[in-house]
Amino acid sequence: MLTDAKSSRTKPAGEGGEAAPRRRRMVPADREQMIVAAARRYFADYGLTGSTTELAKRMGITQPLLYRYFPTKDALIARVFESLFPQDKSPEWERLLEDASIPMRERLKTFYKEFSHHVFTYEHVRLFLFSGLSKFEYNTRYYELLTKRLFHRIALGLRQHVAAGGSAGRAGPVSDAELELVQSLHAAIYHVGFRRWVHTPGLSGDIDGLIEFKVDCFLDGVAATMQHLPPE
C-alpha cells in the first residue's frame, strides 16, 4: 500500500503540529550572574579547591561555556569574592559612620546590625574561612577594603565618643593602634557569623541583641583603653 509522503513525515512537536518555540538564549550579563551565584555556593560547600569541571556539571552547562565568561578559575574566584562585599550599601554605611549628629553607640549598633544581615551568610562566612586557608589572598584585599572604607571612619567616631565623655581626645592621622582597636570590635562581631555557619552547634536566636551587647561591652571600656594607646 502506498502512502502519501507528506503524511508519513513526523510532525513537529507542539500543539496542532506547530513547531515548539525555541528556547531563548540567556543575556550574557544574566548568564554571568548565574555563574557567579552558582560558584559562590559551590565553593562555599566544597572549598576553593573545587573544580570548574564539577561546577559546570552541577550547573548543567559545558566547561567551554563557563570559560567563555571566566577564562581561568582564578578569574572566577576573584569575581566571586568581589561579589561578597555589598558595594551598594557601602556609601550608605560610610555616611552613617561619619554622622556626628548620631551618638557613636547608636551608629555602631545600626551599622553592625545591617552589616551582619548582608554579610553573615553561609556563603560569605565559609568562603572567607576557605580563603584564609588557601593560596588565595582575597582576605587581605577584603580587609584592605574594610580598612579604607569603614575602619578609618569608625576610628574617627571613637575619638568623638571618647571626647564627648570628657576624656582627652586624639588628633592627626588614624594610628595603627587605633585601627587595631577597631579590628578587635569587628573580630568579636564577625565571630558571631563563624559561630552561626562554621561552629557546631550553630548559633541561633537574637543576633541583633547579641551585636548590641558586644558593642556596649566594647564602648564601655574604649575610653580607658584609648588613654593607654601609644602616642600618635
UniProtKB/TrEMBL annotation:
SUPFAM superfamilies in alphabetical order: Homeodomain-like
Native organism taxonomy: Bacteria, Pseudomonadati, Pseudomonadota, Alphaproteobacteria, Hyphomicrobiales
Protein name listed in UniProt: TetR/AcrR family transcriptional regulator
Pfam families: TetR_N
Keywords, ordered alphabetically: DNA-binding
Stored InterPro entries: DNA-bd_HTH_TetR-type_CS, Homeodomain-like_sf, HTH-type_TetR-like_transc_reg, HTH_TetR
Origin: domain of life: Bacteria
HTH tetR-type domain ranges (all copies): 29-88
Chain intervals for the UniProt region annotation (Disordered): 1-26
Transmembrane annotation, as ranges: none
GO MF, one example: transcription cis-regulatory region binding
DNA-binding region: 51-70
Native source species: Bosea caraganae
